[in-house]
Amino acid sequence: MSFSAQMLLMLSIFLALVAYHARLVEITSRLDFLWKLEAQRELADMRETRKNNRQLLRNILPDHVAHHFLHDRVADVRIVIFLPFLLTHYVL
Asked: The whole model's pTM is what?
């Protein structure tokens, strides 16, 4: 095999590898973009759910009690523990 044929073969292999790598980068970029969109949708859904939960809590409890649970540092733990008790004993 002559030197020019070897160089042509090596150049074609190199170009094939570059094209393959470019395709992998494109696929990865598309997946990252789709995952980012999904994460943004999930964050928006979580914000909407949190907003709805806060509104429901304000409708169930008196204002000062809802304020205590919503603005305390351990509010999430207290709500999870105390809310089932409220719902079973103080149904409006």
From this structure: 0.55
DSSP structure string for 59-92: HHS-HHHHHHHHHSTTHHHHHHHHHHHHHHH---
Q: Express each pLDDT in 56-90 by its tens digit.
A: 888 888 888 888 777 765 555 666 666 666 666 66
Residue 71 neighbours by CB under 8 Å, 6+ apart: none
What b/e readout covers 24-33, taking b as 16+ CB neighbours within 10 angstroms?
A: eeeeeeeeee
The CA distance from 58 to 56, in Å, is 5
